[in-house]
DNA sequence: CCAGAAAATGATATCGCAATCATATTTTAT
DNA sequence: ATAAAATATGATTGCGATATCATTTTCTGG
């Protein structure tokens, strides 16, 4: 920021390459960006000069001149959660081969911070944005609408997306798990998750779950929550808490596999038989779920696919192709295992 | 890329705000960037105008004009590995509050791809870069030297870093674990890890481990490796493989906790007593290590700290402060638990 | 009340590149 | 061989902001 300007910037510029290759700057630009429109002879000279000088294109000047940058901002609630990482990897895969560059913003489940990130990212003239979730502040919506850039909301399926949308219905997923537990004969089921006020999708799973319990005339319990990030430790602690405070509970639906895995490991250590004393289910379908003893019942979602779809959608939209579907409701898989 | 220019770019510009506020563009720039040098009256008018128009600063124009962007590239081998995520979180924490923006490059342990990323990132005129590892192609070194930007190499401690460096000695860590296993009475110890050719740090742990075995006159075995990314599944499979093919082995040092955890889960499922039949150790000190039964012996490294230090170092260097230490050898913790 | 200093504001040039339009060169068709 | 079309190259301008320097306004002290 407080850097002193150093006469001509510090790098090798197009002009330097042009000088060395004995052509005009614009020819260099063309030779490097659209080699096919430049004669092989010149192209070669230019390439050699660029190589010799170790020229790298100044992306900011490029973006400024062509009024459009190759930056796609991705705004997620958390990086430490494997779930988002997988989505990001899917996005990366597609975006990278289409020549785009990702920037990440971590909101820590805070909608104000989401606004800040988006506002900042708009300053990069992004050709489009990828967001996690469909819940935003009013002023975030206004800002996005004002700037009119393509936006893909991911992770959860919404009936009224801002623009494009790919995800699954967490309400349905929650209901499906309730259904499963009821079918297996459990009658006193409780939901446990962290930071439910902030984690809207976990809350939606609870809502679906709770509604199903109500529909089936079963006892409903308020969700057990902790105001810390999810982790196996907390999951174990929550299981303990439930066994102690509400011993009638015969099954727990954890908001995610981290918590559920922690519960299973804790039970194992303490010799609590699962699912006989209490059943445990999770959500996400992390690989570790299959390896636990007992193996963990969970709901798998195609996260990498979600990322890929989001990126593909955006890239298509950017390149002007009209895409048939602006919304995709990806399905989920309830994987019934030994823990229930 | 193929976007048509749309006359004046599509966003609100400084000029628009200036027009609305009835001042010159440069005053707007000042009012927003260094409010203290503008009179309160004008500042307020400008701020109101900016708010009304939903102005967001064009970062690329800003960076171009001041010849310096706020982008710090971070190049890591993998995003799916929790280890790098933690380093990144540490970096983020410091970088963000200093007003910098991170961009990530994922090399998948490929040095050529590292070169590509770095070359690309240099086009963003970054004030500095953060890399994982100290092993690079010759042309990568040349490029970095040519551009002379501050660089922090992280994760592993090197005797001859490019510029700044923070990390730990993986050779020593490997030796420490060998030491521990020997002290506990194991005599037929084997090392198991994935993609050792690419994962230089895992290889270094093996080297340290192997050297220690040699020093103590114990039988040395070639490392067991798989050419797939590490995962609990693979760890379980490797344990099986060892028990079957080399039944004399009484302890396994896995290259990381993912593999080791998988081994423990597998053993549990198959009723193989750990550590009685075979001991298992890991590396990284992931939280789950403590929760397994038996709990996993591992080596913890201060990853978040590494990230923080790297970022702080870079920020200091950028702001021109001379820092005492250009290198930091962070220590590691061997946490002896029940699995050995 | 005025000279001189300090503070606030503005005009202009520039960052590095690509879009646009103009010009030179080659190719093709007749 | 020559006009017309196609291709290759170059000159100029502008993207949106900030640095620099110039100017105006406000403050200070005698």
Please tell me about this protein's structure:
The structure is a homodimer of 340-residue chains. By secondary structure, chain A is an alpha/beta fold. Chain A folds into three domains: 14-57, Orthogonal Bundle (434 Repressor (Amino-terminal Domain)); 71-168 and 303-331, Response regulator (Rossmann fold, 3-Layer(aba) Sandwich), CATH 3.40.50; 170-300, Rossmann fold (3-Layer(aba) Sandwich), CATH 3.40.50.2300. Helices cover 45% and strands 15% of the residues of chain A. Chain A contains 13 helices and twelve strands. Chain A has helices at 14-21, 25-33, 40-53, 59-65, 82-97, 111-122, 138-147, 170-183, 200-215, 232-245, 257-270, 288-291, 303-318, and strands spanning 71-76, 101-106, 129-132, 151-156, 164-168, 189-194, 224-226, 251-254, 279-281, 298-300, 327-329, 333-335. The first copy, chain A, has a six-stranded parallel sheet with strand order 2-1-3-4-5-11. A four-stranded parallel sheet of chain A has the order 7-6-8-9, sandwiched between helices. In chain A, strands 10-12 form a two-stranded antiparallel ribbon. The longest helix of chain A has 16 residues, at 82-97. The model of chain A is unreliable at 1-8 (pLDDT under 50). Chains A and B meet through helix 4, helix 5, strand 2, helix 6 and helix 7 of A and helix 4, helix 5, strand 2, helix 6 and helix 7 of B. Chain A binds a DNA duplex (30 and 30 nucleotides) through helix 2 and helix 4. Chains A, B: This is Transcriptional regulator. Chains A, B: It comes from Allgaiera indica. Chains A, B: InterPro entries: HTH_LacI, LacI/GalR-like_sensor, Lambda_DNA-bd_dom_sf, Peripla_BP_I. Chains A, B: Keywords: DNA-binding, Transcription, Transcription regulation. Chains A, B: GO terms for molecular function: DNA-binding transcription factor activity; transcription cis-regulatory region binding.
């Amino acid at each position: 920021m407080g850097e002193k300007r150093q006469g001509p910037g510090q790098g090798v510029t197009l002009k330097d390459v042009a000088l060395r290759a004995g052509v005009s700057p614009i020819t260099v630009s063309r030779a490097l960006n659209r080699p096919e429109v430049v004669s092989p002879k010149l192209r070669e000279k230019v390439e050699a000069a660029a190589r010799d000088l170790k020229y790298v294109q100044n992306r900011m000047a490029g973006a400024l001149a062509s009024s459009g940058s190759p930056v796609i901002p991705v705004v997620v609630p958390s990086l430490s959660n494997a779930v988002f990482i997988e989505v990001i990897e899917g996005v990366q895969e597609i975006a990278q081969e289409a020549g785009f560059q990702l920037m990440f913003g971590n909101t820590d489940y805070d909608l104000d911070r989401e606004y800040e990130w988006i506002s900042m990212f708009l300053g990069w003239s992004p050709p489009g944005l990828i967001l996690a979730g469909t819940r935003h502040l009013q002023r975030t919506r206004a800002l996005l609408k004002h700037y009119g850039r393509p936006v893909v909301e991911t992770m959860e399926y919404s009936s009224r997306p801002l623009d494009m949308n790919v995800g699954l219905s967490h309400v349905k997923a929650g209901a499906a798990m309730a259904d499963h537990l009821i079918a297996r004969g459990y009658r006193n089921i409780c939901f446990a998750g962290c930071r439910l006020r902030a984690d809207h999708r976990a809350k939606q799973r609870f809502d679906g779950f709770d509604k199903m319990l109500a529909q089936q005339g079963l006892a409903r319990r308020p969700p057990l929550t902790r105001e810390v990030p999810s982790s196996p430790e907390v999951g174990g602690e929550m299981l303990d808490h439930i066994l102690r405070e509400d011993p009638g509970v015969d099954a727990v639906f954890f908001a995610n596999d981290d918590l559920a895995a922690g519960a299973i490991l804790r039970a194992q250590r303490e010799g609590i038989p699962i699912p006989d004393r209490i059943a445990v289910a999770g959500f996400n379908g992390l690989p570790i779920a299959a390896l636990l003893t007992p193996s963990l019942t969970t709901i798998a979602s195609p996260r990498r696919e979600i990322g890929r779809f989001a990126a593909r959608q955006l890239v298509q939209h950017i390149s002007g192709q009209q895409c048939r579907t602006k919304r995709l409701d990806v399905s989920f898989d309830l994987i019934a295992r030994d823990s229930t």
